[in-house]
Design a protein that fits this description.
Blueprint lengths: L1 E3 L8 E5 L2 E5 L4 E7 L2 E5 L7 H10 L7 E5 L5 H4 L2 H8 L3 E4 L3 H4 L14 H14 L10 E3 L12 E4 L8 E5 L4 E5 L3 E3 L6 E4 L7 H7 L10 E4 L4 E3 L2 H12 L1
Parallel strand pairs: 5-6, 6-7, 7-8, 11-14
Antiparallel strand pairs: 1-15, 2-3, 3-4, 4-5, 9-10, 10-11, 12-13, 14-15
């Protein structure tokens, strides 16, 4: 198992495998599942990461017309990002768990505790948000999904309910990409402290529930565990989950 780091936090794109691409960086990330029949986006980062998406599509000889859908791991602003722009301008559907549909459309959410922090990582997170547009473009229409749904999208993504960070947090498992996308169910770089390695994510509604939900992914057959914040984790979900539990103990 290994953490696959960007050479610098500002790196905007990274090809993990021919099927699996990341846009953003170790501060905020979104992912592309690249398949012969099209592309599925998992999360949409921040609004300004739209330019990273179009650059990456151009680099691999694909276009926005190849994007078949966006699957959100939850409805927080730094994951909703440019999804509404794709939906409004291109008619690309955006999928979110029913329990987070209101959150993704700008509804109220609980105020989660921030926990420990260090000034350097906090400033890096804030600076990246300023550059990429922290002000969300909330969705005006979503397609609701629920636990166990198999989506008719490239990469055969399957929805796994992961309540805790938010009521409608999910993981997305793609057998084609051999990856599980976990959003903020765990982190590999804590945005407030800079700690690296799998651990609990900050701003979590119910930390105990989030920790319990990790059992839902630990036996998946995958080579990559991909969070919304932090480097890609190249290893089994069980290894990532074990590391989170150790960090929480």
């Amino acid at each position: 198992m290994a953490i696959v780091r960007s050479h610098q936090h500002e790196r905007s794109v990274m090809r993990l495998t021919p099927t699996l691409h990341r846009i953003g960086n170790d501060i905020v990330a979104a992912y592309l599942i690249v398949a012969p029949d099209g592309i599925t986006l998992v999360d949409a980062g921040l609004p300004g990461m739209y330019a990273d998406l179009t650059r990456e599509l151009d680099a691999i000889g694909r276009t926005l017309g190849d994007v078949r859908g966006v699957v959100l791991t939850h409805g927080d602003s730094d994951h909703v990002g440019f999804a509404e722009r794709l939906r409004r301008e291109r008619g690309i559907p955006v999928f979110v768990h029913a329990a987070d549909a209101g959150r993704a459309q700008g509804g109220d959410k609980p105020k989660a505790t921030m926990g420990p922090m260090r000034i350097g990582p906090l400033l890096s997170f804030a600076a990246f948000g300023i550059r990429k547009g922290m002000r969300p473009q909330w969705l005006t229409e979503v397609r609701e999904v629920t636990d166990g749904d198999a989506l008719d999208l490239p990469g055969q993504p399957r929805v796994i309910g992961m309540p805790g960070h938010s009521p409608g947090s999910i993981a997305v498992h793609s057998p084609l990409a051999r990856a599980v996308f976990v959003g903020d169910a765990l982190t590999t770089r804590h945005v407030l402290t800079g700690r690296t390695g799998p651990g609990p994510a900050p701003f979590t509604d119910d930390p105990a529930e989030a920790l319990a939900s990790l059992s839902r992914i630990e036996h998946l057959d995958a080579d990559w565990v991909l969070p919304g914040h932090g480097p890609a984790f190249h290893g089994s979900p069980s290894a990532a989950v074990d590391a989170v539990r150790a960090a929480d103990s």
